[in-house]
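As a warm-up, study this chain.
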Amino acid sequence: MTATLTDFQAAGFPMGAEPLVALDLVDTQALCLDPVRDLIADEAEHARWWALQADRLPDAAPPAISATRRLRALLRSLFEAALTGATPDPALVADLNAVAAAVPTSPRLDGWGAQARASVRWHDDYNGHPALAAIAGESIRLLADPERLGKLRACANPACSMMFLAENKRRMWCAANVCGNRARVARHYEKTRG
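Now compare it with the structure written out below.
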């Protein structure tokens, strides 16, 4: 069963269950805190985050924490460039393509007759990691789709660094029960203060 935002928050992650695992990954670093808070700083947190994503990714053991962080930094840079209209360093795009290419896929027929189904085989012969390649692939599809990329948002709370896809045009906050509540409380305080 796919993890929900409630599941992520219960596990200590303020954000999760976005339409793209790539956004969940980027949101494992709270840049707005001083000092910055890495939500996958140790092996236990890292394993917990990957376990929450298991139903959405190819079946594989979690990658090394350093590989996860490297992809997270790469994606944050590319998504921030997209949000600001900047042109990223071409090396970042090449790195993203390399992560995706390190684990090619091929279609596969499993079963026969009424039980036949198509599946995908992940080829990790090139020392890549299937889950990281899948995340890189979904990021490439997002960055290459202007309509969907137009839904990429940074939280409207200036003190928040989380990103999300605003599939609802009215969505402004990373999570209604986090920054959305803070905004409502602040508005209420301002209204009742005077």
